[in-house]
Amino acid sequence: MRDAIKIVTIGGGSSYTPELVEGFIKRYDRLPLAEHWFVDIEEGRDKVETVAAMAQRMWDASGHDVKVHVTFDRREALPGADYVTTQFRVGRLYARIKDERIPLSHGILGQETNGAGGIFKALRTIPVIGAIIDDMRELCPDAWLINFTNPSGMVTEAAIRNFGWERTIGLCNVPIRAEIVEGPSLGLDPATLTYQCAGLNHFHWHRVYDATGREITADLIAKINTDDSPIPANISPTPIPEDLLHTAALLPCGYHRYYFCTEEMLAHELADFANNATRSETVKRLEDELFELYADPNLDVKPPQLSQRGGAHYSDAACGTIESIHNNSHTRMTVSTRNNGAIKYLPDDCIVEVSSLISAIGAEPLVWGEMRPHERGWLQVMKAMEECTIKAAIEGDFGALLEAFDLNPLIPNGATARQVMAELLVAHEAYLPQFADKIAELKASGIEIGDATVRDLMAQGL
Amino acid sequence: MRDAIKIVTIGGGSSYTPELVEGFIKRYDRLPLAEHWFVDIEEGRDKVETVAAMAQRMWDASGHDVKVHVTFDRREALPGADYVTTQFRVGRLYARIKDERIPLSHGILGQETNGAGGIFKALRTIPVIGAIIDDMRELCPDAWLINFTNPSGMVTEAAIRNFGWERTIGLCNVPIRAEIVEGPSLGLDPATLTYQCAGLNHFHWHRVYDATGREITADLIAKINTDDSPIPANISPTPIPEDLLHTAALLPCGYHRYYFCTEEMLAHELADFANNATRSETVKRLEDELFELYADPNLDVKPPQLSQRGGAHYSDAACGTIESIHNNSHTRMTVSTRNNGAIKYLPDDCIVEVSSLISAIGAEPLVWGEMRPHERGWLQVMKAMEECTIKAAIEGDFGALLEAFDLNPLIPNGATARQVMAELLVAHEAYLPQFADKIAELKASGIEIGDATVRDLMAQGL
Amino acid sequence: MRDAIKIVTIGGGSSYTPELVEGFIKRYDRLPLAEHWFVDIEEGRDKVETVAAMAQRMWDASGHDVKVHVTFDRREALPGADYVTTQFRVGRLYARIKDERIPLSHGILGQETNGAGGIFKALRTIPVIGAIIDDMRELCPDAWLINFTNPSGMVTEAAIRNFGWERTIGLCNVPIRAEIVEGPSLGLDPATLTYQCAGLNHFHWHRVYDATGREITADLIAKINTDDSPIPANISPTPIPEDLLHTAALLPCGYHRYYFCTEEMLAHELADFANNATRSETVKRLEDELFELYADPNLDVKPPQLSQRGGAHYSDAACGTIESIHNNSHTRMTVSTRNNGAIKYLPDDCIVEVSSLISAIGAEPLVWGEMRPHERGWLQVMKAMEECTIKAAIEGDFGALLEAFDLNPLIPNGATARQVMAELLVAHEAYLPQFADKIAELKASGIEIGDATVRDLMAQGL
Amino acid sequence: MRDAIKIVTIGGGSSYTPELVEGFIKRYDRLPLAEHWFVDIEEGRDKVETVAAMAQRMWDASGHDVKVHVTFDRREALPGADYVTTQFRVGRLYARIKDERIPLSHGILGQETNGAGGIFKALRTIPVIGAIIDDMRELCPDAWLINFTNPSGMVTEAAIRNFGWERTIGLCNVPIRAEIVEGPSLGLDPATLTYQCAGLNHFHWHRVYDATGREITADLIAKINTDDSPIPANISPTPIPEDLLHTAALLPCGYHRYYFCTEEMLAHELADFANNATRSETVKRLEDELFELYADPNLDVKPPQLSQRGGAHYSDAACGTIESIHNNSHTRMTVSTRNNGAIKYLPDDCIVEVSSLISAIGAEPLVWGEMRPHERGWLQVMKAMEECTIKAAIEGDFGALLEAFDLNPLIPNGATARQVMAELLVAHEAYLPQFADKIAELKASGIEIGDATVRDLMAQGL
Questions:
Q1: Which residues of D touch C263 (CB under 8 A)?
Q2: Residue B236 domain-assigned?
Q3: Which of A412, C371, D170, D393 could form a disulfide with C375 if both were Cys (CB 3.0 to 4.6 A apart)?
Q4: Which of A325, A352, A382 is the last residue of a domain?
Q5: Which of B420, B113, B244 is nearest to A413 (CA)?
């Protein structure tokens, strides 16, 4: 076990950070941090400095001697890092607003991780992960990359398969949240349950067994449309047809609502859009409030309001993973890692989100085996969509982007989808240098942004 | 080589039959028929007798001594059959009208082979194929089943994989049509070209090479939206984005329009729906006209009007296949047959539509190998949808039907799709005994058919 | 957690049993046994009664109230069983003597688990496992089958894949022995190490990592030919070429010596054969001595001499597995279980021996992924040999037996191997009813047993 | 169709060449050659000039205007080549004598294509194929490489998979010989039969069907040990057990004798070895006689003695392939080409020998599908052995060479095999620069060649 652990968090100015800090404080005995570096960009200076000051207050209040540092140059932070965690958002929340509003302005779901919006988030984020890995290779070649940046599955696939950083683990709070809330909904202690999970990030299924080995999946399916449902706060609680779920005898994740109930989810989101209350706009407001709280020099604990933000249990996933690596503790967790045959009929070298053991050698997936045709078909088309997106992101390949849109089940193919793609390219111009030529061509052809909110952001240079 | 070939055609009263007869007449030297039996149902007595009389006139005019028989009991026809060809339509064209109009009445594509309509056509047809095979096993155990009944891929998969009739070959006129019309569009003799085709029925791609081995796929992609395009008559000529096609560097089949241009295809079909001019209604009118012609006792050749019907080159596929089996001629054709590794990442025992050699041992597929992620993802989701549909058809499994709808890329998931499914179940009650309980439950719950045309048909007992 | 656990041990009269009992006593707090039934055959009455009396003394000395029962009818023992452990030997040690001496009398390795002898052990054992499972299905349908009977991999494959008893886990002491002895040879605490193991029973490889995640496989390869080597007592310590091992960078199991050093192993065994000191004959003598000790009414602990017997750490594997199931403890162990993609390029439904988690739902394998061509080729030919053997055992298929011999890398193909096969069939006649016709044919053709020791056993009806 | 075809034959001085020339003459109408270049090495000047003179006489006698050229610099010959055929033998027949005699001097089969000798032939040959391809890439980038050099499967795999020359087809006369001689043994016209062949070069199986589609494989198995057997002249006609063959219901190739009857084949070869009549020594004598004939200035047809040489029907394979490419004739032939799923459970990108269509786009394999466990196990271990050999050949990787020997089923593992390997390395020093360090080390350690014949060759610098 190494002492004096150094952690670097890229995107340290996130509103999530206090939860992460709280997680490290709780685990200090088994995970003795020495330094925590927050890396962010100049545009986020206010936020990161606010959060760092609060984090330092939290550590000080904990009685542990941990030093929080802020830098705007990740190359200053990386040397000697043991763990690099990523939670940055290229283009900040303004970009997410565009990802959601532009498709909705044409009657198409934006969906920031799996839909048209998610494809564009991947296009913006993946090149940055590549640059971070280039720096890690030089400055901290033994460090682990713990990725939380969405779309977490695609970003993790790019990190491992394309950029070759084997010591990457992709995380998400969705699986851990299910593990925490589902058992109690049946009066069972979560610690006694066995979870088998398989799929892709934001697109996975699980089965659950009690302490005697009895499967309780069907009991939990019966809870899925009730108030006890483990739906993340950012997803409208549209009922999923239970007869469909019982046929598969598998629990979906909340994001399956977009696919199984596309019509209803679109209706919800169009209503939100009309009220300037898309999830991104709501989050923006929540974040503004959170930062006001964080700025209070007397606050030295995570404020309860953060739990409405949507990433609850983030620290259980992130800090738990790091602690398991550090202590070689072979903890069973659901993470994004290389498939290698865990899920049949998906490519061996693609990244999947599966039940794995986490230890000093990283993530070892448990075998899931064959999928039924229904789940298999869904996973395969989504993985193909992800592969096209990653190729587009890395190579600036417009044909691959067309193919990602064409495959995406949330995007109805045709001229409207083309218009959405064009507007998104133009709106995100600053963060898509790999598509500079295509964007120039579109602008020359007179593409206009239809949504006034997005036009306003662009006018402000956001 | 066997002499005195006996052919049995199930659904002999089809308007296509004269083309089939013409095909046999053209090939008589290499394929000497002795008897041709037409099997049909009592409701189709007029049609089959009209067609049979015309077929006999065609044979008589040809100078060959071939006898045409009509029966309404297939067990009378099957003994001693060498080849059984299937071109029947359970529920006749009235069922197709329901398949197309019910979804469109709710703003959803019907699509009679791959969409909601195609799923229901499979539900009606597959049990009948099972019954035919039961009879063949007893009465003509060495016969080949040459299936032309749509959805041809799913029906063929059921015949081979589920009902165990290995001597089945599934056909479609789409691939052979491409082979006939594409070369001339570039001024090339079709006989000199090499076609590599792979995918599923009505969902396949191909590459083409000239006599020197040079690939000419890109040249043909450039023709796809021109007047020379090999689009079947039944598909609206919506332009497919060429940049998407050039990315894959593969030629799609016409049915890809539904997937690549869903928005435009839906708009076309909604306009046709409003004019009572859906494809099924148009075909109904064409067929009525054809049968008037066929009834002319002086007509002893295939009338030119048949070529507008949509199945052009049917006889080139069907008669060509039979001739290749009979003469052991190792002809290269695109047919539906067992995958066995021909297309990677699709199940080995599923049926695919691929370039194959046809000889006395049946169809041997040529290896295609790996698909790019884009085509792979599409094929996988479609194959999964087909597997769910076949299971639903054979087992009357409502959960599997839900899953087929859920996976189908032409059906937007949600309450409207549920309503469409319910109406289709009720409208096709007479042909879906495997779903009797579910239909009774739906009727008890008060499901109503929204479309007046369909209600009229039902009121007439059609 | 269930109370009052009932365990049934088939082949309870084995000399190993005291170790098993000791293992249960050590784990009583977490695994509270109520009854332990020993099932054996009449021919083994003396042995099983001796062992049962000693086992009862051991439990009594432990202060726990556990009752040992003996029966010669497994249907009396099975009702209500929680765990059925199998350690029987069809034909007793006399059969093993034939398995080893007949091949060696012709200059061919017998090798009781993977060679010609192992094939015949499978032929005798697999039908009996089938009969046990038939009884379990009726009498204790929720029980787990913990198989220790060799050839453990093939027997487990028959149990799961052929006889359909999913609740089977196959065990062997070889992997656990490596985990116990290797760490200390480098001065490391075994509890801190991570083992990744994959292959087939008696034919697997492993990698080892220390607590910080550093791989120490190469350090252990350097120990393999030293006195610290973890070679089981039953395998001659012929040095394995280290350059070969370092190329793979994997630790082999002791049985690989037969394959990597065939010439030397054969020379050793021929010398033992000449001295009537084949392993089976040595074990026979050791067992006779052990049973003299067990008969001592004052002995109530496992005698140290048992550790020379060859199955050391048997109880760590068997009792550890049962305890992990009972307590749902997710222990990492190497067991024989269904592949399901854990090892690429072996069939999904075959049984492999791999690192797995053991919990109340049984064994869940960890993904190993791709093998290098060298290990892959070896595993594939061995698995194919196993499949042919299992088919021969279940169906009495002589062709499959020919194929198993033909594939077995320890058997040089030709007339001599045919003679060995014929003699083994005849010598084991009493236990191979499925080959009765072939054996009758061979006897009629005048096959004679060449080895005098085997002829003597046969003359005594053994 | 291109005119004025230019063919370059590397190893033009082979005794086989007149058969090749005869093949081109027979096919001149469909394959109009303009130039045929013979490339060879200075040490083979006499032979190649003799053969070239004879080839020119043959062309002149045919009345076609084809010019034969000789060069000792392949870069002079390659520019403008349409087809490059390879039939060279690195180290000439002297190397083959070493390949066979060194193993036999230690009681181990040499086997020049699949045994220890074959491994060393691959080590010598593969780097030369790499150099030829480097030159082709520069000088004739559109040419086809038609490889006949043994071990043809491994050389073809290196050419396509490792050196990236996609336009390579590997040939062997064994499959075509079977197609020519088997039908007549049953009184059937070969042209009416359908062959399905799959496996590796010199290690494949086939099934045969008559003109009506009836399988006649079993009838041919019954002929395999008779005088009509299609055994190549170079393989001793040891009977293969028919019960083994009927179990698989597949026809083996002649080389399977080495695996199925290892004991008998070894006895034959040891007898030949003792008489200085190993196959290589016999061939050497045959070749000397052939070259005396070829030197006769009146000889202008292929002499009948050539058919004893062992490569009969070479020209049917080689010229037939070239003709099919040139004329885009889609001929069904068995060739070595990329697997791509044709044989399940072998790597997609390895080379297999399978029934394929040959046309202007090269070889397209037909799907074979699943293998039974027996054949599958054999193929997998042989392919793994081939992969290790190719890696050793290209990288000079001694560990990979150890692994190839370890896997090879014809080599009993142990100290003797190590000695054989060492002697072969030293004996072939001149042609194994990639192993220079290892050879120096072995020589320093005092390795001696045991066989006097080989020592004599080495003393003569051969």
A1: 412-417
A2: no
A3: C371
A4: A325
A5: B244
Q: How confident is residue C311, by pLDDT bands cut at 50, 70 and 90?
A: low
Find residue C170's DSSP bridge partners. C147, C336
Nearest-Cα distance to chain A for B137, in Å, is 29
Q: Are chains C and D touching, using the cut-off of 8 Å on CB pairs and a minimum of 3 such pairs?
A: yes
Q: Flag whether C88 is in a domain.
A: yes
Nearest CA in chain D to B341: D341
- pTM of the shown model: 0.96
Q: Yes or no: say if D324 and B211 are a contact pair by the CB < 8 Å rule.
A: no
Q: Domain ends where: D295, D325, D355?
A: D325
The answer to whether residue C360 neighbours chain A at the CB level (below 8 Å) is yes
C371 → chain A, closest CA residue:
A340
**Looking at CA atoms only, how far is residue A251 from chain B in angstroms?**
15
Q: Which residues pair with B6 in a beta bridge?
A: B35
Number of independent structural domains in chain B: 2
- Is residue A427 within 8 angstroms of chain B, CB to CB? no
Q: How far apart are CA C183 and CA C335, in angstroms?
A: 20
Q: Are C83 and C8 in contact (CB under 8 A)?
A: yes
A332 to C357: CB separation less than 8 angstroms, yes or no: yes
Q: How far apart are CA B355 and CA B332, in angstroms?
A: 7
Residue B376: pLDDT band by 50, 70, 90 thresholds?
Answer: very high
Cis peptide before D412 (omega within 30 of 0): no
DSSP character string of A126-175: HHHHHHHHHHHHHH-TT-EEEE--SSHHHHHHIIIIIS---SEEE--HHH
Residue D285 pLDDT > 50 = yes
Residue pair D375/D352 in contact by the 8 Å Cβ criterion: no
Report pLDDT for B382: 98
Work out the minimum CA distance from A342 to partner chain C, whole angstroms: 6
The whole-number pLDDT of residue D1 equals: 43
Chain pair A-C, CB pairs under 8 angstroms: 95
Neighbouring CB atoms inside 10 A of B372's CB total 18
Domain residues for the domain of D448 are 394-459
B340 near D CB under 8 A = yes
With a cut of 90, say whether residue B310 has pLDDT above it. no
Say if residue B311 is in the same domain as residue B455: no
Q: Which chains are within 8 Å of B by 3+ CB pairs?
A: A, D
Partner-chain contact A348 C370, CB within 8 Å: yes
Chain A residue whose CA is closest to C326 = A212
Question: What is d(CA A94, CA A316) in angstroms, rounded to the nearest whole number?
Answer: 28
- The answer to whether A200 contacts chain B (CB < 8 Å) is no
Q: Rounded to 5 degrees, what angle do the CA atoms D27, D32, D37 make?
A: 100
* CA distance linking residue D310 with residue B212, whole number of Å: 34
Contact C236, C265 (CB under 8 A): yes
pLDDT in tens, C340-391: 999 999 999 999 999 999 999 999 999 998 999 999 999 999 999 999 999 9
Asked if residue D448 and residue D300 are part of one domain, the reply reads no
Mutate to test the interface with B, among D188, D367, D368 (most CBs of B within 10 A): D367
Q: Is there a single domain that holds both residue B17 and residue B132?
A: yes
Nearest CA in chain A to B350: A373
Query: Are C134 and C24 found together in one domain?
Result: yes
Residue D339 lies in a domain: no
C380–D385: do the CB atoms touch at under 8 Å? no
Q: Is A195 a catalytic residue?
A: no
Task: Answer whether D239 touches B (CB < 8 Å).
Answer: no
Does A289 reach chain B within 8 Å, measured CB to CB?
no
Along chain A (462 residues), what's the average pLDDT of each consecutive run of 10 residues? Answer: 84 95 96 97 96 97 97 98 97 97 97 94 98 98 97 98 98 94 95 98 98 97 80 74 96 95 96 96 93 94 80 85 97 97 95 98 96 98 98 98 98 98 98 98 96 97 93
- Which residues in chain C are closer than 8 Å to D441, comparing Cβ atoms? none
Q: Are C319 and C427 within one domain?
A: no
